[in-house]
């Protein structure tokens, strides 16, 4: 409990460069219910021992204090019995020690206020860093005591992650304003919640420790970010006018694709062909391909480029298993595709099988909806029950002609047994989703997209290397040949998967590491 003259932490307003964090009491109503459930789960994990700051709480040395009290009583008894100069000196010395180590930490603390400042809060992204400043203001100097500051940072979006602790200690001397600065590296996307700041005050002999918990509630949002070095080419929302050599649609059963010269020489000038649908103009039919026995195919012109982009995000726990960093990578790619498509003036719709987020619509030019969609992607969780591929055909059947669908999923089984749980691999003829249902909807959805004139881009995340990703990509292209579906393997580097948040004292240089 705090004394009557102690002041609970204060916070100010948020600025652009140096932001004083204050409690946000005006959250959107759509996040209220899901946010309460996430925070409740985080608190349960912290109570079970995840909070390392609580586990390392400093305590007074009670046995040493008992010994000191016994010596003080003995000196008082000796002075009463004999009353000599030695007994008086011994009693005075023990009394001074007792007052310094037992009474001063409680009497000299006075009023204490704390303030937390986060630098460049709006630029926090997955894999980046965060600079935090903690100011401690004292009402009176503490020359004969030490002062410790500790706090923890919990990720409410990923409650199973451990709390990131920060602890430091100093001798304030006669200073009344103390500033502590530290950096958190390896951020992961989600909502970061700062726990109450714990102030510990003790004597220089370490016999008495007084601990105060000052409430300085605040939270920040870390935006999703794809793995470093990824550049999309040839996809909706990518750099316009640029197409990668290996990002080509499978146009026929034999895997043949149109060459650049053929695209220029044909009437449509389009980079793709699709299966003929009754009602297509006859001048768009590829008669040469039909003469070669490849069936009736319709060339897609530039006028048929999609004006709407639909992003499908796999958010099922079964698909990812324990490799949740693959899910973070897919969320980052969805955010990048959203931003690029919005910059090109296209409307975007995000669909996922998460329990909290189902459908997010961003109309062309609506910047407020864009920011809201990015915030939702930062908070989304992989807690879906049903696999996204089970609903692929139904989603494609509702899309208008000319729409582009970017499907972000995981393309291989992890080492944690996610094959049995229902992850996706090319052998979907022999795969089941755990209850015996074959995953034929993957191929059926791709074929239905070609029939309805919907451009389907299948982006599969892999935890292995580039060679494995390319091999899996070729296998998927063979399986989906003849559907006009784009297939691309997206490897997730080991550096991205092994990214974990860590707090370092002193900013960009860890003081403890430099001293050792």
TrEMBL record:
InterPro entries: DUF58. The chain crosses the membrane at residues 62-82, 88-108. It holds the Pfam family DUF58. Residues 272-374 form the DUF58 domain. PANTHER family: DUF58 DOMAIN-CONTAINING PROTEIN, SLR1927 PROTEIN-RELATED. Keywords: Membrane, Transmembrane, Transmembrane helix. This is DUF58 domain-containing protein.
């Amino acid at each position: 409990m705090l004394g009557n003259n102690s002041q609970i932490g204060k916070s100010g307003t948020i600025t652009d460069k140096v932001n004083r964090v204050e409690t946000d009491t005006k959250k959107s109503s759509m996040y209220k219910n899901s946010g309460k459930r996430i925070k409740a789960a985080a608190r349960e994990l912290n109570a079970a021992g995840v909070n390392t700051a609580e586990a390392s709480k400093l305590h007074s040395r009670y046995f040493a204090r008992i010994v000191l009290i016994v010596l003080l009583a003995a000196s008082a008894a000796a002075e009463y019995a004999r009353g000599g100069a030695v007994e008086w000196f011994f009693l005075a010395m023990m009394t001074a020690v007792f007052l310094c180590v037992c009474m001063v930490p409680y009497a000299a603390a006075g009023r204490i206020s704390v303030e937390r400042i986060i630098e460049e809060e709006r630029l926090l992204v997955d894999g980046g860093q965060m600079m935090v400043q903690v100011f401690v203001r004292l009402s009176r100097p503490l020359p004969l005591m030490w002062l410790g500051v500790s706090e923890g940072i919990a990720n409410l979006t990923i409650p199973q992650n451990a709390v990131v602790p920060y602890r430091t200690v100093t001798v304030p001397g006669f200073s009344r304003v103390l500033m502590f600065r530290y950096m958190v590296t390896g951020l992961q996307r989600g909502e970061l919640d700062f726990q109450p700041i714990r102030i510990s005050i003790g004597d220089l002999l370490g016999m008495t420790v007084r601990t105060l918990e000052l409430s300085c509630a605040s939270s920040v949002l870390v935006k999703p970010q794809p793995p470093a070095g990824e550049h999309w080419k040839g996809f909706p929302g990518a750099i316009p006018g640029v197409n990668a050599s290996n990002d080509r649609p499978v146009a026929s059963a034999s895997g043949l694709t149109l060459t650049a010269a053929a695209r220029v020489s044909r009437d449509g000038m389009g980079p793709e062909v699709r299966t003929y649908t009754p009602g297509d103009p006859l001048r768009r039919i590829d008669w040469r391909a039909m003469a070669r026995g490849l069936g009736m195919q319709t060339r897609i012109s530039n006028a048929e480029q999609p004006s709407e982009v639909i992003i499908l995000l796999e958010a099922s726990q079964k698909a990812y298993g324990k490799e949740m960093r693959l899910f973070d990578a897919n969320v980052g790619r969805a955010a990048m595709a959203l931003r690029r498509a919005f910059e090109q003036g296209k409307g975007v719709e995000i669909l996922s099988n998460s329990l909290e987020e189902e459908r997010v619509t961003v109309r062309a030019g609506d910047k407020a909806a864009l920011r809201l969609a990015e915030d939702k992607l930062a908070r989304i969780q992989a807690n879906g029950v049903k696999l996204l591929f089970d609903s692929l055909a139904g989603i494609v059947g509702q899309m208008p002609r000319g729409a582009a669908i970017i499907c972000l999923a995981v393309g291989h089984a992890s080492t944690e047994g996610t094959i049995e749980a229902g992850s996706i691999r090319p052998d979907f003829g022999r795969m089941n989703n755990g209850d015996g249902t074959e995953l034929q909807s993957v191929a059926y959805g791709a074929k239905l997209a070609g029939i309805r004139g919907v451009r389907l881009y299948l982006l599969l995340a892999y935890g292995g290397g580039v060679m494995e990703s390319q091999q899996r990509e070729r296998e998927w292209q063979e399986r989906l040949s003849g559907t006009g579906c784009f297939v691309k393997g997206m490897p997730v580097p080991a550096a991205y998967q092994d990214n974990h948040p860590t707090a370092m004292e002193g900013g960009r240089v860890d003081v403890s590491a430099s001293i050792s």
